[in-house]
Amino acid sequence: MKTYIPHKFEVNINDKCIKCLVCVKQCSFSALSFDEDDATIYPDNNKCVACHRCTTLCPTKSINIVKNPIVYHPNEYWKANVIEDIYKQAETGGILLSGTGNDKDYPVYFDRILLDASQVTNPSIDPLREPMELRTYLGKKSDRLQFKENKKSTTTIKTKSEPQVKLETPIMFAAMSLGAISYNAHQALARTAEEHGTLYNTGEGGLHKSLYKYGKNTIVQVASGRYGVHHEYLNAGSVVEIKIGQGAKPGIGGHLPGEKINAEISQTRMIPEGTDALSPAPHHDIYSIEDLAQLVYAIKEATFYKKLVSVKIAAVHNVAAIASGIARAGADIVTIDGFRGGTGAAPTVIRDNVGIPIEMAIAAVDDRLRKESIRNNVSLVASGGIRNSVDVVKAIALGADAVYIGTSALISIGCTMCQKCYTGKCAWGIATTNPQLAKRLNPEIAYKRLSNLLRAWSLEIKEILGAMGLNAIESLKSNRLRLRGVGLSAEELKILGIKQAGG
Amino acid sequence: MKKKLKAYKIKANGLHFKELNNLIKKAVNDGHNSLNIVGVIGQRYIGTGLNKKIKINIKGTAGADLGAFMDGPNIVLKGNAQDAVGNTMNSGSITVHGSASDVCGIAARSGRIFIKGNVGYRAGIHMKEYQDFKPTLIIGGEAYDFLGEYMAGGILAVLNLNSKEQYLPSTYIGTGMHGGVIYIRGNVHQSQLGQEVSSLKLDSKDEELLYPRLKEFANTFKLDFDKIIKERFIKLLPLSHRPYGRLYAY
Ligand code: SF4
Ligand code: SF4
Fold first, then answer.
1. How far apart are the CA of A427 and the centre of ligand 2, in A?
2. Which of A7, A154, A445, B117 would give a disulfide with B99, using CB separation of 3.0 to 4.6 Å?
3. Is residue B1 over pLDDT 90?
4. Distance, CA of B203 to CA of B245 (rounded, Å)
5. How many helices (H) and strands (E) are present in chain B, helices listed first?
6. Is the per-residue pLDDT at A400 higher than 80?
7. Which residues, 6 or more positions from A370, have their beta carbon under 8 angstroms from its beta carbon?
8. Using an 8 Å Cβ cutoff, are A342 and A406 in contact?
């Protein structure tokens, strides 16, 4: 069927082109071809997704990607994307899919929150010369500490601590399965987590044999499909995460199409090559908080009470009540994924319309757990759309213990947010299982870029803490007095638990 | 590790599941390879996460997640079991001389589960198979709705031995099924089946697959194998290995 959808981008190649054909070879979306007869590169604008692979690699910088300037008759209601979505569905009869996170123009509360700094009355701290601690411990904290006086007038702590996991920086890598992203990407995440004393998350696709050695820095995920979940896997990491939901697609299961299940993916998921990997929308052994408690303790039994259990949910309307249930179900960590959270593939209608902002969710959950006097029973991990070190700081000041980053991590290794992850054609070798494409991601370089990102953010967090006169990230946690809102309604300020700037 | 021949006895009465399972784990660590657990009154997670080829005999009523995530043990339960028997198990066997409740065999990847009596809803849901891993779940009595839902592999058989009705009481059988096979002794109406399966007659290959397993089942529970197979069986297979392949606009 002829498509009525106009092309979104135009590929312009100028006369500095030396016909090296790098761009033609690199365009995994088949948007460029070379005609030998007239020795010219012809773009097929319909196929270009603005992934920038060609422009980045072109040695003479002769390619430019611009927006198609075509206009529809101006209409603030029937906008171009609305019209084009209808065309696409009329042409395919299918559910629209998207990669990455919600890209719609909802308010970004992080950008309406400003940080405090010390002036005169309590001095700021210079993080370059004075000790500054980003270390964070995940796990249940005791209600009270009991001490024992020893004979030689020394004191020891009598209270037995629940297992804790130490993070040297409060930034972890979010769940992205092997299959959703390539092996090289997984390996780079694992290595970086190890170097920076933090954790990466396997996602729900099992754990590749060669990555077991990063166990201490690994969170293994158990999702509804239970792919690659077995005794050795459960005991391989420091944390086991039960995935209930995901910010990009709350309430929706997963579906890794058979085309992506190659030998490697088949091995870690433990399903035959070429079959679809369907993850049911719910876990069919969990229909209630009591059932969740049952799985939490099944995992604790299977891991001999040595591993922390995290429960990850999407930030939805009554997130605070659900988080309270999770805390009471025995989880050690509650992970909340906001509506900007990324994905390899989600129905666009869900991605763009379901869930709530992570900023609101963190504040609401932290508040609720405090009011119920159970905040110390769980660590709170926030994820979904953390873009920079300041978002990390604001998330922690709103009440999180630590954050996950997924999209930012992928951008650091080359992702250009083209949103085509679901096609499996990622030109940057990230969201693909095609070996030809996957090898474009050099694991050594990816590891260095990720590692630089974590270093840079950690340094910036120290700078910010110093400016606030704090010398430990612990003192920032849920310290909402150090936040002020601008341009927010009274109700928004109330839910965030912060004051209006000037007040 | 010393091998100890005599079964090690554990009294479960009055113990919290954590205390009971600690005793079990300790006994296994101490090298016991045969345990007799008596007086079980609903404690969960017996055998959960164990990865040794040990024998566990249980008397009483086992709680949920009997043998969850287990890899190797051979569990025999004289009594009934609650939900999620053999949840995500990797290998080993579970024999229940009674009935089991919902999601029996959920996500099992291998090993075998025999239930003498009935099971609740969603038995065999999302069982899988991979290379040499192929789970078997045989239910002597009836099974309720959503039997074999999302099934991706393995062998599931329901024998309906204790009922005079020829038809199973379940509906939505095999909804979302995309692998493996379901055998039902007796029959089902088309209206009881999920959209993703079709009902077929058995051929000689099925007999090769099913009969040895049924023989083992009959021996285990001292039933008459010939009598079991005298009644007709039907098999349910998924219509497609990719039931949701054409849902999306690319
Ligand atoms: S899809 Fe990417 S590589 Fe292909 S022409 Fe467009 S920007 Fe260049
Ligand atoms: S991961 Fe790849 S396909 Fe997905 S948005 Fe980034 S560049 Fe595009």
1. 7
2. B117
3. no
4. 29
5. 3, 12
6. yes
7. A478
8. yes
Q: Which domains are delineated in chain B?
A: 133-240 (2.160.20.60)
Query: In Å, what is the CA distance from A468 to each residue of A125, A255, A366, A484, B233?
Result: 8, 45, 22, 13, 74
* Chain B residue with Cα closest to A86: B249
Q: Cα–Cα distance between A30 and B17 in angstroms, integer?
A: 59
DSSP state of A320: H
Q: Which helix (H) or strand (E) holds B208?
A: helix B204-221
* Chain B contact present for A257, CB below 8 A: yes
Q: Which of A264, A260, A326 is nearest to A289 (CA)?
A: A326
User: How remote is the CA of residue A423 from the centroid of ligand 1, in Å?
Assistant: 14
CATH class of A165-500: alpha beta
Quick one: CATH architecture of A9-94?
2-Layer Sandwich (3.30)
CATH 3.20.20.70 residue ranges of chain A are 165-500
Q: Would you state the pLDDT for residue B166?
A: 84
Q: What's the whole-model pTM score?
A: 0.95
Distance from CA of B206 to the nearest CA of A (A): 21
Beta-carbon separation of B88 and A89 below 8 A: no
Q: Is B134 on the interface with A (CB under 8 A)?
A: no
Name the residue with tokens 């579906």: A255
Q: Write down the residue that tokens 């020795």 correspond to.
A: A39
Looking at all shown ligands, the one closest to residue A9's CA atom is 1
Least confident window among A280-289, B13-22, B180-189? A280-289
Nearest atom of ligand 2 to the alpha carbon of A411:
6
Q: How many CA atoms lie within 13 A of A293 on its CB side?
A: 11
Q: Residues near A260 by Cβ (< 8 Å), separated by ≥ 6? A: A179, A424, A433
Return d(Cα A304, Cα B85) in angstroms, integer: 19
CB A331, CB A309: distance < 8 Å: yes
CA distances in angstroms from A190 to A358, A383, A404, A410, A444, listed in the order given: 25, 18, 14, 13, 12
Q: Are strands A308-314 and A239-243 parallel, antiparallel or unpaired?
A: parallel
CA-nearest residue, atom 7 of ligand 2: A415
Query: Whose atoms come closest to the Cα of A407: which ligand?
Result: 2
With beta carbons less than 8 A apart as the criterion, state whether B107 and B84 touch: no
